[in-house]
Design brief:
With 437 residues, the protein is mostly helical. The chain has helices spanning 18-51, 54-81, 84-108, 113-138, 147-175, 178-199, 216-232, 234-255, 257-265, 269-293, 299-319, 325-353, 356-371, 373-388, 390-410, 412-415, and strands at residues 2-5, 10-13. Strand 1 (2-5) and strand 2 (10-13) form a beta hairpin.
């Protein structure tokens, strides 16, 4: 089955039964993400309960972001050159090993905070390979006309995991040892690896040879080409800058959510779970709505509306207190719904416009540049939260996110992104064909 994209000259050579081939990989990743969600909740709550420190939580997020920021472009270059299926299997296996090391340390009673930092670093490093390999494979495994719907379905899947994992994590850490909770991730990782290894064929871009010798010079050249591609495309570069600024402010806000619950709302682990589940429910609702509706005719309008809605929700969240906790739960749902709009529509644009043989490095370049500002946000968030209160950071992040949404509607390079060819030129309108008389 071959599908050609006249807009970006992307050609797809799909397996004959593409859904039968793609579905096991999707199911495996969903199961694996559930296990990762349980681990994430358990570790964050463990650090919150043991230290009660905004600095510790901010540092944990900083450590988890570091590999993506510094090594992402190099990982993307390797994703485009090496076998993507093998990269996903090796990455999932390495994450499982890091989790196993934590299981052993908790069992022996020797766990230190730096052990958790090390595990988060390894998980992030592997994710820098696994995520782009998965994302870059989609455009060669799924028909182009389903990109937007798949984006919505994926957002819904992420939302379901966000709904289930916090309350399930809170329940499990109340009735099981920490090492037993972490061991669940080993089982889910094994399921994902088995499904991918035995049931899925992952195509390689036709123009890329996986047998070509890789040298540092070749990898550096690929990284430079990816940076040149992204930075030279004016509309794309402005989106990256917007994402960087939003990440710098919004990421710390959600990293500090457990402290928002304990210090502002005066509540506990179950209430953190309710907030995170509300976020997930919003993501599910937004993903399903996007999957059925498809968003506005102009996908960039869907993305920018999502940014505006997220900004409003985060701002109101920063105004809540102990007496308005339920309003905070509702606003987390709004933020999740609007996040699906923003991410689902933008992802479809990227998969449509960027050639498959460059998607690994471009997605990681975009991810690295947009994440580069997040560590700065982590370093700024801790002292601001300590001096001005945690809610102050939510207000700053929400107002700025809404402002970025408004800017995107006004800035032509951003608003017309989906109409542009790589390089920033507007695509030529199709020639009009006269009907014979």
């Amino acid at each position: 089955m071959t599908v050609e994209n006249s807009d970006s000259q992307i050609t797809q050579d799909l397996p004959a039964h593409w859904l039968r081939n793609y579905l096991p990989m999707w199911v495996g990743q969903a199961v694996s993400l559930l296990g990762s969600g349980l681990v994430q909740f358990a570790l964050v709550w463990y650090m919150t309960e043991k230290t009660g420190s905004a600095t510790v939580l901010a540092m944990a997020t900083f450590v988890a972001l570091l590999p993506r920021v510094l090594l992402g472009p190099f990982a993307g270059a390797l994703v485009d050159r090496l076998n993507r299926k093998a990269i996903m299997i090796i990455s999932d296996s390495a994450v499982a090993l890091a989790t196993f090391a934590l299981v052993v340390s908790f069992h022996l009673g020797i766990t230190q905070i730096w052990h958790i930092y090390a595990a988060l670093f390894v998980r992030s490093l592997c994710g820098s390979f696994q995520g782009p390999a998965l994302q870059a494979s989609v455009s060669l495994m799924v028909p182009r006309e389903h990109f937007a719907r798949l984006g919505g379905i994926n957002q819904a899947m992420f939302g379901v995991i966000d709904i289930v994992s916090p309350p399930l994590g809170a329940l499990l850490i109340s009735v099981m040892t920490m090492q037993s909770v972490l061991a669940i991730d080993l089982v889910t990782a094994a399921i994902a690896i088995a499904l991918l290894a035995f049931l899925v064929h992952v195509p390689q871009p036709a123009s890329v040879s996986t047998t070509e010798a890789l040298t540092p010079k070749r990898v550096l050249a690929d990284v430079r080409n990816g940076l040149k591609y992204a930075v030279g495309w004016s509309g794309m570069f402005k989106v990256i800058v917007m994402a960087s600024l939003i990440n710098m402010l919004a990421s710390p806000a959600f990293s500090l959510l457990p402290l928002m619950v304990t210090k502002v709302y005066g509540k506990g682990a179950a209430d953190v779970a309710w907030l995170e589940s509300a976020l997930g429910l919003g993501v599910v609702a937004g993903g399903l709505l996007l999957g059925v509706w498809g968003g506005f005719k102009r996908k960039t309008a869907t993305t920018l509306t999502g940014l505006l809605g997220m900004g409003v929700g985060i701002t109101i969240l920063g105004l809540t207190d102990r007496s308005t906790y339920m309003l905070a739960v509702g606003m987390m749902g709004v933020v999740g719904l609007m996040n699906s709009f923003a991410n689902g529509a933008l992802g479809a644009i990227m998969q449509t416009k960027i050639p498959p043989e460059m998607q690994g490095r471009i997605f990681t370049v975009i991810g690295s540049l947009s994440s580069a500002a997040s560590p700065l946000g982590m370093l700024l968030a801790a002292p601001v939260a300590e001096q001005l209160g945690i809610r102050a950071w939510y207000l700053i992040a929400g107002i700025f996110c809404a402002a970025m949404g408004l800017y995107g509607f006004i800035e032509r390079d951003v608003y017309t992104l989906e109409d542009q060819e790589p390089g920033g030129k507007l695509a030529a309108a199709p020639a009009q064909v006269e009907e014979p008389l």
